[in-house]
Amino acid sequence: MASLSPFLIVFSITLFFFSPVSSITCSTQKLPSTHSYTNCTNLPTLNATLHSTYNATNHSLSVAFAADSPKSDGWVSWGINPTAPKMFGAGALIATKISGKTNVNTYNLISASVPYKQEKLSFDVWDLSVEDVNGVITIFASVKVPEKGDSLNQLWQVGPITNGTIGAHALEKVNLGSTAPLEVAAAAVAPSGSESGSKNGGVKIGKGLWLGFVLVLMSFINM
């Protein structure tokens, strides 16, 4: 029987073992013991999650938004648009990573012009902080929400830092589709530790891993 070349076998094994497989999910992310939430959602794009708890007493939402930390200078953000599911008109919490140092501030996204200016938002924000741990940036905050707002327009994004300032994000499908409704009631009543959205046990299997596995299997079959 014909067999695959030694080079192809080595290449297959390399793909199998070195393809990236990690993924941020609600079930795998470890938050500080000082932060706990009633609900968590695996957001549909940009490998991000949102932990949240709704406080009906003061009509506020405590959140922890997590996304991959930029490998070099860059930014990640999470925000709310009070009027529509789009970027313009949103109030955003943007965490920047510049020369290894991470900071977070509030920004009003009133136009496509960048860099954005740090401004007070149309809704109150407090307990704003950020951490960059194990390749994940997490933004912590509490935000005031409308008393009768059952659903909020949330959006999230990632992008580059250009000349020390926030640059425009990419216009790929995953970037343009990074918006979804946030059900306030779910954050109030969901059992602790629950999660919504797509789940796969905390592991995302890359195409390279599958290809490597198939090629290795074929090499043994054809020996």
Automatic annotation (TrEMBL):
Keyword Kinase part of the UniProt annotation: no
Ranges that cross the membrane: none
Compartments, as annotated in UniProt: Membrane
UniProt name for this protein: DOMON domain-containing protein
Pfam families: DUF568
Keywords: Electron transport, Membrane, Signal, Transport
Source species, domain of life: Eukaryota
Taxonomic lineage from the root: Eukaryota, Viridiplantae, Streptophyta, Embryophyta, Tracheophyta
Species this chain originates from: Lupinus angustifolius
Signal peptide (UniProt feature, chain positions): 1-23
Domain DOMON, first and last residues per copy: 46-159
One GO CC term, this protein: membrane
